[in-house]
What does this fold into?
Amino acid sequence: MDLGATVCTPKSPRCADCPLEAMCLARAEGAQELLPRKASRVKVTERTLRYLIVENERGETLLHRRTGRDIWQGLWEPLEVAASHRMKPEHVVTHRLTHRLLRIEIGRGTMADVPRELTEDWRWVPREELVHYALPKPFTKVLPQE
Ligand code: SF4
It folds into this structure.
C-alpha cells in the first residue's frame, strides 16, 4: 500500500484508516492537517561591496546615507567604491541578509578618493559622534566609535 498516495495525503490524511495511526506523532499531536510544511526556498545570491574609510585632517570620518531601492536604505556607511577599485582591504566581513550573502571589503582611503561635490547625503562625522549614526552592523565593528 502506498500510504502517501492513498491514506496520508497532504490535504486530507485519513488517519482512521491508517495502519500507522498508533505510532504516528503527527496524529498524537493533532498536527496531521498541518504537515508536511513546505520548506521555504530562499535563493541566496552573493554580492561583494567595497568601502574606503576616509578621515580628513580633523580626524572626521566621511559617511554617506544610502538611498534608493537597495539594501540598508537610509543607513549611513563609509565611502563605497566600485568593485573594480584597487584597494588593500584591512577588514573583510561576511554578512548574511535574507536573500544575500555579502562580502564586504573595507580599506583606507585618502582625500583623493572623496567625491568633488558632497550633497546633503554626505557628512564628515567626528569620531565621538559616530555612535549617533545608524550604521549597518558590519561597519559598527570597524569604525572607531568612542
Ligand atoms: S496517522 Fe499519521 S501517517 Fe497515518 S494518515 Fe494520519 S498523519 Fe498520516
